[in-house]
Amino acid sequence: MDRVRAKLEWFKTVLLPHEAALRNRLRRILPPTQELEDTVAEVLARAYATERWELVTAGRAYLFTIARNLVIDNARRNKIVSFETIADLEMLQSDMGLEGQLHARDALRQVEAIVAALPAQCRRVFILRRVHEKSMGEIAEEMGLSVSTVEKHLAKAIAIVMRAWSQQEETSLERASTRAGADRGNSRAVARSAAV
């Protein structure tokens, strides 16, 4: 009886204070087909059902991890995963700051644009393999191609994505170094005028 009371007290003090934050975060990321209140209830039920509850002291992080896994499970079952959904899942990692979340979302949008620009068959193979995690044999069967042709399309897609990503990174670094140089020049000018 004491253990049951202790678990209820843990649930009330460690988890329930974060229910509103969980609900707000899920409200922003759940697909329209997924019911918010059902998802919140499922997350809380799974959290309460944990056997080693005494070890859980970071209630918010624990609830967000359960929610993230639940959303991933539902997306896998539905076999519909957009890059936007993947970016939104990052919002459930509570230890990531807002700047990190924005950077991750921006990076995923860049990858989505690169993938959208791939030749049609390369794009389809890439998405079936990397997003839907299908085997090469499954992809070959679905597309009516040989496994070696699927492998060539995937290799080509990966090469294009990596090349485009590398070019974007170089461009970002060049912009950052140009900005840093301009900032240093402005700082020197301000320092000189202040000294005068």
Structure in words:
It is a single chain. With 196 residues, this protein is an all-alpha fold. It folds into two domains: 1-107, no CATH class; 117-196, Arc Repressor Mutant, subunit A, CATH 1.10.10. The protein contains nine helices and no strands. It has helices at 2-15, 19-29, 36-49, 59-78, 83-90, 98-116, 120-130, 136-143, 147-195. Helix 5 runs antiparallel to helix 6. The longest helix has 49 residues, at 147-195. The relative contact order is 0.06.
Structural key phrases:
single chain; 9 helices; Arc Repressor Mutant, subunit A; mainly alpha; 196 residues
- Class by helix and strand content? mainly alpha
Number of domains: 2
Shape: elongated
| Termini gap | 78 Å
Flag low-confidence runs.
none
Query: H/E order of the elements?
Result: HHHHHHHHH
Q: Level of helix content?
A: over 70%
Keywords: Sigma factor, Transcription, Transcription regulation
Pfam families: Sigma70_r2 (PF04542), Sigma70_r4_2 (PF08281)
Protein name: Sigma-70 family RNA polymerase sigma factor
GO molecular function: DNA binding; sigma factor activity
Write the layout of secondary structure elements.
Layout: H1 2-15, H2 19-29, H3 36-49, H4 59-78, H5 83-90, H6 98-116, H7 120-130, H8 136-143, H9 147-195
Helix pairs in contact: 2-3, 2-4, 3-4, 5-6, 6-9, 7-9, 8-9
Protein name: Sigma-70 family RNA polymerase sigma factor
Family: Belongs to the sigma-70 factor family. ECF subfamily.
Region (Disordered): 172-196
What is the structure about, briefly put?
With 196 residues, this protein is mainly α. The protein is built from nine helices and no strands.
